Amino acid sequence: MELYALVLAGGSGERFWPLSRRALPKQLLRLVSGRSLLEETIGRLDGLIARERILVLTNVEQEKGVRSALGQFPAGNIIAEPAKRDTAAAVALGVGWVAARDHNAAMVVLPADHVINDTAGFQKTIGVAVGAARDKNALVTVGIKPASANPGFGYIELGEPLAEGVHRVVRFREKPNVELAESFVRAGNFRWNAGMFVWMVPTIVTEFNRHAPELGRFIALCSARARFEKALRDKFTKLPKISFDYAVMEHAEHVLVVEAQFDWDDVGSWQAVARYFEKDAQGNASNCPVTALNAGENIVFDEAGGNIALLGVNNLIVVRTGDAVLVCHRHHAEKIKKLVAKLPEKLQ
Q1: What pLDDT digit, counting tens, does each position of 126-182 carry?
Q2: Which residues, in sequence order, are bridge partners of residue 282?
Q3: Is 3-259 in CATH node 2.40.30.70?
């Protein structure tokens, strides 16, 4: 049994403006190490999945950046979607690509923009998930034990245990309000949905055919290598724009969750990234030298590593790149997307 991977490397590039742009989304940024999050994701698969069996799926705007970041990666294994069609179409494309190589393979789907430091624990968890997918003929997702009642994540409700660390899924819960998220954490049987999936190709093809037949037909077209390029060119842009969770996962009968045996961070905002920066005595977190007077709890990032001086300000996010500067209150960081929409096109 061969194991393949689909790495989803799209994104809008808004939350980390001005460092991120449309052509430079989060996964292409070097936020917490000397490598981009995409490079870290691919590196995490070393020893588990050969690079020839990894497909990186991006979009036309970001293809150049992805290819640049993955210079030693098989060029033919990087594919740019001709249009953004949401995750159901992306997963269907990946399933078709794998099926064209091995109709009976196991497959893992991974986002490209998460921080995971425990590679051994990650690979062990994927191994458990592959075993569960094979033995139970099920779709398997990876659940993260909540570190807080975060309303920004989807949640998975755990059902009966089938083996150590493996449970049936009762249901998926979309991003809840704070009160509901707190009740999930108190209950103890909810996990964050990390957007990682494992299955056998025949199982996922059956589920697409059953719950999203148009996408199932697209997989069938892609599953012959000779027709793959034509299907991508002629059919992909016409596929329904729907998330994979809505199209398939919430309707499938046999869905399991494997509990993560590794650390995990979505790093979805400047506040989250600041956890990886050095802090001074006033709580200023930065990736560069900071001179501060009567200033505290600020987040500072300078692309060139220059010195930033802060005087009499608190709770700000200050980000400087070669062509732009962001200054905002850290409690308004969720509105950066709205700010980006007002910027000149060349800065978006």
Answers
A1: 999 999 999 999 999 999 999 999 988 999 999 999 999 999 999 998 888 899 999
A2: none
A3: no
